[in-house]
Amino acid sequence: QVHVVESGGGLVHSGQSLRLSCAVSGGTLDTYAMAWFRQPPGKERQFVAAISASDQATRYAESVNGRFTISRAIAKNTVLLQMNNLKVADTAVYFCAADEIMSGSSAFKWNYWGQGTQVTVSS
């Protein structure tokens, strides 16, 4: 069974950058599609970005397109989320997810989840 563990969250000011990591065990990145979701306080979990296993095709939520980049570090079996020009609205718990297929933007379709890492952006 695949396990994922997020790291890299923290407190930053608006306009700054942060990079999240998702370490994958029990599977490899050429087998599992990977995604990032986030859950702001008092809101439902939201899709952020995803990357496919086969051709590394990426997909982004409109709210982060052009600011966030999802990528894979194959040698470390790790997925990264580079977040630039952060905004207060990006404050949330960020979750990494994995699945055998590219399961799109619906959280319930992704099978494997980490525990989340908090990102707080202050003005």
Rg from C-alpha positions? 13 Å
Run of helices and strands = EEEEEEEEEEE
Query: What percentage of amino acids are in beta strands?
Result: over 45%
Q: What is the global morphology? A: globular
3D structure, described in words:
It contains no helices and eleven strands. Helix content is 0%, strand content 50%. The model has no long low-confidence stretch (mean pLDDT 96). Strands 2, 4, 5, 6, 9, 10 and 11 form a seven-stranded mixed beta sheet that branches. With 123 residues, the chain is mostly beta strands.
Task: Write the SSE topology.
Blueprint: E1 3-7, E2 10-13, E3 18-25, E4 33-39, E5 46-51, E6 58-60, E7 68-73, E8 78-83, E9 92-99, E10 112-113, E11 117-122
Parallel strand pairs: 2-11
Antiparallel strand pairs: 1-3, 3-8, 4-5, 4-9, 5-6, 7-8, 9-10, 9-11
